[in-house]
Design goal:
The complex is a heterodimer of chains A (248) and B (146).
Chain A (H helix, E strand, L loop, with lengths): L1 H4 L28 H20 L9 H9 L3 H23 L2 H18 L10 H20 L21 H19 L3 H12 L4 H8 L3 H19 L12
Chain B lengths: L18 H16 L7 H23 L3 H4 L10 H4 L4 H21 L6 H17 L2 H10 L1
Helix pairs in contact in B: 5-7, 6-7
Classes of the chains: A mainly alpha (248), B mainly alpha (146).
Chain lengths: 248, 146
């Protein structure tokens, strides 16, 4: 079955990766040209948009209703659930892990767990998005902890050097550098602090929802966030001038 | 001590202290990170949907498995002794052979046959036939007795 066929979670290629190449987005490294990356990313966005706006899709149905439909064999319901949740899960994993291939593994594994529990999903359970974030968060933390084992090289995609000739390349480069600097500072935080910051400030989830994802109290989440922001600000302060801040 | 343990907040510094200033300092970094393109690849979405189809197919197969023995034709089990008894016609043949042997044994022990001439003639004819047919003679005696 699927689980047995899947590649190990760390250090091995996921099942879908052999098809990669032309479909990798611009964040996958300098080996793909900027034009090509933009084109494929745009194609991915178009597919997601089509999935989201397909009139035949069950766009108005709740997650619980879609899970019931999927459990009964409705693959359209699976498409709607994938379009609705997989991009969020991927974004969280990508920002937590800083590496696309691993983020894809986590996303696929998270969604696989969803398919498996679909027949047993209870409508009055926690929100599906919260459940998915929790599963993905735990998978990410597991991977981050394994990375810290001796002998393991830290992950992270190379930041592509995009020669953008369109108006405002300086502004875009500056934004990219700031995002990269934040990513480096985030990577230095303890896992739960990093997770709290990503969920709050990048995924823009509420503190109560983050508390549910982390299985902690709201006060504990506020504490995590406060310490994480203090740490981030301290790490980024020396770099403000080089990143275009006039106050640095 | 686990630095990020949420149940042990940093007691030296109030949670709210400096938060707004730090948030303001980090706002541009967060905005830049949010603006990054982190859309999943098409191949990933395809793999996820393939998993969905595969899981459902596996579940459907597993769900129909218990019903299969009831609907399938049962495999006939070979009964004990069937191979040994098949040359003599199975259990029925064995029962008939045993009954005939018991009857012949009983007739031999009793030795008090009182038959009329016609019957004896028939018996004599049957006995001459018995010399040729062997065990068939038991059947003839049996029919005469009854």
């Amino acid at each position: 079955m699927t689980t047995a066929a899947r590649a190990p979670l760390l250090g091995c290629a996921p099942r879908h990766r052999p098809e990669h190449g032309p479909e990798y987005g611009p964040e996958h490294g300098p080996e793909h040209g900027p034009g090509h990356g933009q084109e494929t990313a745009a194609r991915g966005r178009a597919i997601i948009t089509a999935m989201r706006t397909n009139p035949d899709a069950d766009a108005d149905l709740s997650d619980a209703a879609l899970l019931v439909l999927y459990a009964e064999g409705d693959q359209a319901a699976a498409r709607t659930l994938t379009a609705r949740h997989a991009p969020r899960v991927f974004a969280l994993a990508r920002r937590m892990l800083g590496e696309t291939a691993e983020a894809e593994d986590v996303t696929q594994e998270t969604m696989l767990r969803l398919w498996k529990i679909a027949p047993d999903w209870e409508a009055d359970r926690a929100a599906l998005a919260t459940w998915l974030y929790r599963v993905a968060s735990n998978l990410c933390i597991d991977r981050l902890r394994r990375r810290r084992q001796p002998g393991r090289a830290p992950g992270g995609d190379a930041i592509p050097e995009v020669a953008d000739e369109r108006p405002g390349p300086e502004h875009r480069r500056e934004a990219r550098d700031r995002a990269a600097a934040l990513g480096e500072a985030l990577a230095a935080l303890p896992e739960r602090q990093r997770l709290a910051v990503v969920l709050r400030h990048l995924e823009e989830r509420s503190n109560p929802e983050i508390a549910a994802i982390l299985d902690a109290s709201v006060e504990a989440v506020e504490s995590l966030l406060a310490r994480a922001r203090r740490d981030l600000a301290a790490r980024l302060a020396p770099r403000r001038a080089e990143l275009g801040f006039t106050d640095g | 001590m686990d630095e990020d343990n949420p149940v042990t907040p940093d007691r030296d510094t109030p949670i709210s202290a400096g938060t707004s200033a730090e948030e303001a300092a980090l706002a541009a970094f967060f905005a830049a990170a949010r603006a990054e393109d982190v859309e999943p690849r098409t191949a990933l979405l395809s793999a996820i949907l393939a998993d969905a189809a595969e899981v459902h197919a596996a579940r459907a197969t597993a769900g129909s498995a218990p019903a299969r023995p009831a609907t399938a034709t049962p495999v006939p089990r070979r009964r004990f002794g069937a191979g040994v008894l098949s040359p003599i016609g199975g259990w029925g043949g064995l029962a008939a052979l045993g009954a005939c042997a018991a009857l012949g044994f009983w007739l031999g022990l009793a030795g008090n046959l009182s038959l009329d001439g016609a019957s004896l003639t028939t018996v004599a004819a049957s006995q001459s036939d018995a010399a040729e047919t062997g065990a068939v003679a038991f059947f003839d005696y049996a029919s005469l007795e009854q």
